[in-house]
Amino acid sequence: MTLLHALAIFAAGIAAGTINTVVGSGTLITFPVLLAFGYPPVVANVSNTVGLVPGSASGAFGYRRELRGQRRRAVPLLIASTAGGIIGAILLLSLPASAFKAIVPGFIALALLLIVLQPRLMRVLETRRRPAHERPGPAVTAGVTLSGVYGGYFGAAQGIMLLAILGLTVDDELQRLNALKVVLAGLVNLVAGVTFVFAAHVDWAAAGLIAAGSILGGVIGAHWGRRLPPSALRALIVIVGVIAIIRLV
Fold first, then answer.
1. 47 and 39 in contact (C-beta within 8 Å)?
2. Contact (CB, 8 A) for 189 and 52
3. What range does the domain containing 205 cover?
4. How crowded is the C-beta side of 245, counted as CA atoms within 13 Å?
5. Higher-confidence residue: 46 or 65?
6. In the chain, how many domains are there?
7. Contact partners, residue 1, CB within 8 Å, separation at least 6
8. 44, 72, 126, 156, 173 from 143: Cα distances, Å
9. How far apart are CA 22 and CA 102, in angstroms?
10. Which tens digit of pLDDT belongs to each residue from 175-224?
11. Where are the alpha helices (DSSP H) in 37-173?
């Protein structure tokens, strides 16, 4: 790995940590960067997942004020995310690498579609949230579990999926729901990452650079990321995602 490559991966980690906290699609930055530097798709995905875990932790810490009072709601959803993340990680390790390479372009396309539709989705969430319950019902729990499976397998735009599920089923401020989203998505990355550490090949140099960058990015996202122009952020993610699709296909 050259110094230029290392700096690029570190910078991608910063961007991904910031975006994951604010939007939830940072994988669409780091994953294509690793592909561009010649990492095999599965190795790139595994190393990326491990590397983004610390950024989720720093982002959740930055949102600690919005997380207050959500314990009873969060615990069942944390369990659901854990189960989904483990299942998704096992699927990644069980299916052949060729399957991942064939499936992921579709996942990236879905993620890009969600990002493009995000402004409309946010408007819908503002008007259609349902009364909150102390504990989540079976529908939201099932949705969070499925998003965990997706996140454990690949993860791009998992945060947007989670925010849609929470926003349509829980009556609360979007910033509080976004804080919960950061924790749930981070837990999926954590359990998937732990699984990969013991059962897959992790490129620790790349994962370490992403981790260092994502910690800084998580802090930036929690404190200043809301000031970023949303349209410019979405445009950047779409461009990088399209490049990743072309690279994989």
1. yes
2. yes
3. 3-248
4. 15
5. 46
6. 1
7. 37, 205, 206
8. 27, 18, 19, 16, 20
9. 29
10. 788 888 889 999 999 999 999 999 999 999 999 999 999 999 888 877 76
11. 41-62, 64-67, 71-94, 97-116, 118-128, 138-153, 158-169
pLDDT at residue 133 is higher than 60: no
Specify the pLDDT at position 129.
Answer: 54
Length of the chain, please?
249
* Tokens encoding 115: 């990002």
- The mean pLDDT value for 145-157 works out to 88
The DSSP result for 138-166, as a single string, is HHHHHHHHHHHHHHHHT-TTHHHHHHHHH
Amino acid identity, residue 186? G
* Alpha carbon distance 143, 27 (integer Å): 21
Winning range, highest mean pLDDT, from 8-22, 158-172, 197-211, 222-236: 197-211
**The residue type at 214:** S
Geometric angle at alpha carbon 45, from 24 and 25, rounded to 5°: 10
